[in-house]
Amino acid sequence: MFRDFHRHPETGYSEVRTAGIVADYLRNCGLEVKENIALTGVVAVLDSGRPGKTLMIRADMDCLEVRELAETGYESLNEGKMHACGHDSHVTMLLGAARVLSRHKDSFDGKIKFVFQPAEEGIPADMKEKVRAAGYDGEGGAGFMIHEGVLEGVDACVIMHVQPALPVGSVSIARKNACASSDIFRIELRGKGGHGAQPQNAVDPVPALAELLTAIHMLPTREVSALETCVLSIGSVETPGSVWNAVAEKACLAGGIRTFSTPVRDHLNRRVRELAENIAAANRCTASVSRVVGYAPCINDETIAAAVAESCRSIFGSDNVVYGDAPAMTSEDCGAYLEKVPGAFFWLGVGTGPSAPPLHSPYFTLDVDALVLGVETHVTNAISLLKFLNKKGE
Q1: Do 16 and 150 fall within a single domain?
Q2: Which of 107, 142, 253, 372 could staple 333 via S-S, CB 3.0–4.6 A?
Q3: Sheet holding 286-292, edge to edge
Q4: Can you give the residue range of the structural domain that contains 162?
Q5: Which domain-ending residue is among 246, 271, 292?
Q6: Could you tell me if 190 and 247 lie in one domain?
């Protein structure tokens, strides 16, 4: 199944084939299944028949628009699309867990909600209009699933993500700060174009751009406490349509802000706008600033994170469970779930060696031996977490 999913990657809100296979498989496991949630999402509930809490486990289904360069023997058949973030393995492992748990309902009390979510990587441009027409104005599929009521009756959630930087047979989980928020800012500085030999007859936005680059990069070092964790990066700088011997009409930049603190997040976004507008004015230019409000930070519930870590130790051994305070500055849309219900996000090692290509690389591969470990991890977590939640609720 994993190889089949890998060969047929589908981008966000287009996971029709994947969702169909998922729904059929879950029905064959005897689960109550709902389809077409948030356009292509699938949700299934496994009821033990005994009272207890409800645990949600999520797998994301979408791929990236990346041309696969890895040679696996089961390469993508969809040109320009690839499961470069391992979501095919997430689907496979959660389906395996659903199969095992459906045969062992006597092992837990309460319910398990299996969520197969679209569009963790965001909304593809060609699907944005359809998503907005469906009534969702956010970015990631998690928020859309919440909008459609997926968290109703859920007491806690757990999300597992593969990580090639970790060897097979290991996991990593943060006590609290698991993944950072992600916002995008875009700035256009507009001046007056002209001939490069006569700058006095133009208004050059490039000096303003240079000044702004330095000012923005100084924000984390001078306006954010050293006790906070944040990253501010600028990844795109251009003067569209200009040439070497002209004064550009406009200069543009785009970057991102990542942090775990809402006050820091708000402060940096506000200051980027202020700097852009004021530096532009000082250079006789105008500034247009836009912000894409991205994913919320993934903040683990510390008691559930500790319970997951203990559950994983029973599988992998204490030496192979990294449990601590070091966060990942990457972002994941499951932060939307963790804002609403207590839960935990953690990494499963799938690395093929010390030089394994990272997530989102066209060369990304995973060690397929990790798949059975992922199933075991889901099953063990589900049983132990429901025992923990039910005992806590007594």
Answers
A1: yes
A2: 142
A3: 230-238, 250-259, 183-190, 286-292
A4: 2-179+298-392
A5: 292
A6: yes
Same domain, 171 and 55: yes
pLDDT at 69: 98
Asked if residue 271 and residue 189 are part of one domain, the reply reads yes
**Phi-psi category of 73—alpha, beta or left, where left has phi over 0 and alpha has psi -120 to 50?**
left
Question: Are 251 and 312 members of one domain?
Answer: no
Query: Can you give the CATH number for the domain in which 255 is found?
Result: 3.30.70.360
Tell me the per-residue pLDDT of 108-122, one tens digit each, with 9 for 90 and over.
999 999 999 999 999
pTM of the model: 0.94
3-state secondary structure the chain: CHHHHHHCCCCCCCCHHHHHHHHHHHHHCCCEEEEEECCCEEEEEEECCCCCCEEEEEEECCCECCCCCCCCCCCCCCCCCECCCCHHHHHHHHHHHHHHHHCCHHHCCCEEEEEEECCCCCCCHHHHHHHHHCCCCCCCHHHHHHHCCCCCCCCEEEEEEEEEEEECCCEEEECCEEECCCEEEEEEEECECEECCCHHHCECHHHHHHHHHHHHHHHHHHCCCCCCCEEEEEEEEECCCCCCCEECCEEEEEEEEEECCHHHHHHHHHHHHHHHHHHHHHCCCEEEEEEECCCCCEECCHHHHHHHHHHHHHHHCHHHEEEECCCECCCCCCHHHHHHCCEEEEEEEEECCCCCCCCCCCCCCCCCHHHHHHHHHHHHHHHHHHHHHHHHCC
Work out the pLDDT band at 272, boundaries 50, 70, 90. very high
Together in a domain, 104 and 137 = yes
On the question of pLDDT at 85 being above 80, the answer is yes
What domain count does the chain have? 2
Mean pLDDT of 198-227: 97
Exposed, middle or buried by CB within 10 Å (0-12, 13-18, 19+), for 262?
A: exposed
CATH of the domain at 54: 3.40.630.10
Q: In the chain, what percentage of residues exceed pLDDT 90?
A: 98
Class of residue 368 by CB neighbours under 10 A (exposed 0-12, middle 13-18, buried 19+) = middle
Same domain for 158 and 192, yes or no, is no
